[in-house]
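User: Is it possible to get a 3D structure for a protein together with its bound compound? The compound here is nicotinamide-adenine-dinucleotide. I've pasted both below.
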Amino acid sequence: MGALDGKVAVVTGAASGIGRATATLLAEKGATVVVADLAAEAGEEAAAQVKGRFMRADVADPAGWEAIVDAAEGEFGGLDLAYLNAGVTTGEADITRLTDAQYRRIMGPNVDGVVFGLRAVVPAMSRRGGGAVVATASLAGLIAFDADPVYTLTKHAVVGLVRALAPQLQARGITVNAVCPGIVDTPLVGDEAKRLLQQAQFPLIAPRQVAEAVLACMTGSVTGEAFVCQAGREPVPYRFPRVPGPRLEGAEGRLPPAGLAGADQVPR
Ligand SMILES: NC(=O)c1ccc[n+]([C@@H]2O[C@H](COP(=O)([O-])OP(=O)(O)OC[C@H]3O[C@@H](n4cnc5c(N)ncnc54)[C@H](O)[C@@H]3O)[C@@H](O)[C@H]2O)c1
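Assistant: Yes, that's possible. Here is the predicted structure of the complex:
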């Protein structure tokens, strides 16, 4: 018996790298996997390997999401798990040189793809009585990665969205978490960068290690966390520092009105 027997999963960006490793692991654990990617040939190959279904889709396109959910529900009876993983970098450190095309290209998969993905999969998971969503952020979702500030923007957006959505999705029986890997050995990291990292003896993360963190999120009950994945370490939920609250007279006895501010803003 696999831990995911009978479950239906969608994995975006599953034609390559982390997405492909995760589609493979989820299938090994018994899930039926919908492999979603823009890349047709590699996507078909990945789907054949996991005995799943390939959907050529641009995750930035809401119509693509409708087709993915329709396929999961129509062909496999429902959707339980979603890994919103497709993403790109700009490769541009200098904000004054960033082209409109570079900006639009990255916002598509990295931000629109996660927002439209969540909007599409949550109703489907609710129809199943619950589910689990994991999004790929990055260490650049937690730190300032100055080699690609706009990539940093998109990954911080993913972390913020996941944390803000967790309470409302918990009420529907759906967990939502982000994985935040350091540098992973995939085609996203160019050959020259890999050569320099190897020269510096900087350990790259194996895609399978990130896949295992995704599986742990999907099979656990934790929600609203951003798991840091680093080579040779177990994934750890990042601990955000408390944000200072307002200074109030007699603050001890006063709490912000429910729904207006979270516990982090409670003056102390
Ligand atoms: N490789 C790293 O070092 C690293 C580190 C942290 C986070 N990440 C993130 O991990 C995720 C996966 O990256 P990877 O390293 O496996 O890269 P990859 O290039 O190997 O795979 C990305 C896949 O996403 C697909 N894709 C891109 N745009 C798409 C779109 N609009 N619609 C559908 N599919 C699309 C590509 O065709 C490709 O198959 C990305 O979100 C990336 O930002 C990567």
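Residues 134 and 214 are 7 Å apart (CA to CA). The domain at 8-237 is CATH 3.40.50.720 (Rossmann fold).
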